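Milestone M4 deliverable, item 7.
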Amino acid sequence: MDCGERIPFPLSHFPFPESERSTMTKFKEVTKRVTSSALMAVIMVLLLTTLFVGCTNNKSDSDATPYSTNSYTTIADFNTATLPHFQVNSKGQVAWTACSDDGSELYLYENEKTTQITDNMKHCLSPRINDEGQMVWYEYNGKSQDTFSVYYRNDDTEQIVHPDNLSDVFPRQNKNGSIVWERKDTNGEGQIYLLSNGQETQITNSGNNVLPQINDNGQIIWLGSDAEELSIYLYDNGVTKKLNTEPISYFNEYDGETYYLRMLNSKGEVVWVGENDEKTEVFLYSNGNTSIISTAEHNRDPWINDNGQVVWEGYDNSEKHIYIYDAGQTTRLTDNSLENVNPIINNKGQVVWQGGSQIYIYSDNQTIQLSDNNMENVFPQISEGGYVAWMAAEWNSGWYYKNICLVSPQSGSNSSTGAAMFTLKKETMEPPQKPAKQSPAVKIQRNKPEKSEFSFIVCGDSRGEDYSWVAGEKLNKKFLEFFSSDIIKKHNPDFVIFLGDCCTNAHTITGHENLADWKECMKPIYDAQIPLYISKGNHELYNWCAAFRVKFQEEFTDKFFTDQPDNGPDGRKKLCYSFTWGNSYFIVFDSFFCWEAPWWHINDYHYYGDIDKTQLEWIKAQNKTEEATNATHKFILSHAPVYGTEGEQAFDRMKELWQEIDDNKYDMFFGAHEHLYSRKTIDSKIAPTYKNNIPQIVAGAAGAPVDPMWRVKVDVEEWNIHLCYHYVLVEVSGDSFTTKAFKVYKDDSGDYHVQDEPFDVYNNNN
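Output delivered:
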């Protein structure tokens, strides 16, 4: 599990500062087979203590400040894997929702008391509360599949904004009570509507228009697309103007939400991120002119206040830092080696952000760490009144959001344990069955020799950096081109199995098909008629809107990888399948399957990896088939391993799957997802019912950024950990098979090479 990419927020990245890196390199070389987890823990504590020096302020504790560390109150407790929505206003009122088994109700925290606003077991989403205490939100109306209504509440009176059978979503309001929202028309495209002084106005009437924002003067912005071109529009006094000339490359969202992003201020100034000369830049529209204000290589998540100050997250190909633009000058605000993300600035010029796993504020020319705990503190907000709120999360076989924390600018009690108002139950939902989609399959002629001597290559994860937002840079093209030519020629395998995360996103915001780039890189393999079997990863589902996850999963099977076997269970064709080759039987399954459901219930594609009931039952049935029972060797593969190396616990159904693997005496499990190599025999020490000592190989660094050592939470020697680019060659000969892991490295000119000898060898008969 990669904490910065496979969960819905960047968590706990602690890259070492330059002064520490040479020491750490030597340390890794000396301790290549570390056996003492206690020693590693001590070293990490010392290093993290050093890292936090860069976040300390320059003033003494005696200096007057309305903020101090751990002066927060826990205003809500819950336990949900679905991202809660919340907002804090200038009076310290917090409106929030969080999913439970019974739905997600709306709650209001004010004056140290929590009130439940709705009680209808529907899904309330995206609550917004202004400084007058007026609230808007949208909720599932039950009239037809995936239709929602927008609601408005003022002085304890609740009303629906526009009752109909269409879908109204993503409402935003200003201090005057004017509301904008997105309505899905009968063609499924979004149009922007405005309700002001009791009058409803349709702002757009063509194309697909989404995610509106409104300022206190009634100016509105939104994203609009015509075909594949995405643009940002400004509506002012009845006149609509397109603002961008360069392609928009990124628009922030969390589970379909522009969760904290503020791109429009009260002066009509607008900020956004667009592509420019292969960089992602922050653009500022002000007084009719557009300029670039960013200085880092790649930038994201801009937020503008009413004074024209802008903050954002910039990435310089080394670290993530917070930048601020003020009066024509751009300055880097952070000076540390943490992952600094998710900044917000209020009209007082106070800035909050997430540094590593803690929350920081810049106020009165000093930086103060607001949280200091063992939680993952994420998604901070700050209101104009200086109130700061954020969410805290914990890992428990997956990331679960646990609390909303609130800091008052007058607080200073150093008490971090506020009263829990109520507890929501953990969400559990079985994916519904989905009928198999009928579509023609284009098949490669797959050679299945009768002889029992053959070889194949296994590897996965060729995606680019998380911050490779430029179209065409979502995958490691140079590695893939080397892999599909030099490596294939070196070994001449009978077939290749690629274990997913082919690219960082399925598409860019402009619609560029990154999976098409991946297939182009693999063209030499296709041209040579070498069968290429693929397991979908989590990153194939990435895009700017959660509603596209199922769509991109369908494109994965129906457009990009049409030649995959289609003998799997209904609704999961070409994602879960089996095939035979010579004397061996293979099963490939989808550990990140995304089922059709209202989008807030779609299984989070960042989670560690699981198997749904439909696939599990299908595998159990397959194991009773003649192909499986007569096979000399049996291999099973997916993107996610069952047992990870980074501290995650296997899900219950994955454990059930392993019991099935063990009972049926499979020869090996192959996974990826973690960007490292590992080989571990899963035996009775893992679970007493495991009797047959089945090996698991993780081969997850085929060009993706290699994981750092600090993420590894298992014994390095016992789990046979190697941190390097690699692939695995499997050679089958009769009743014997051998796996050979080869290291791929770069020379000084950036060219790739393969080490002559494998760094890890396994033979089933030894």
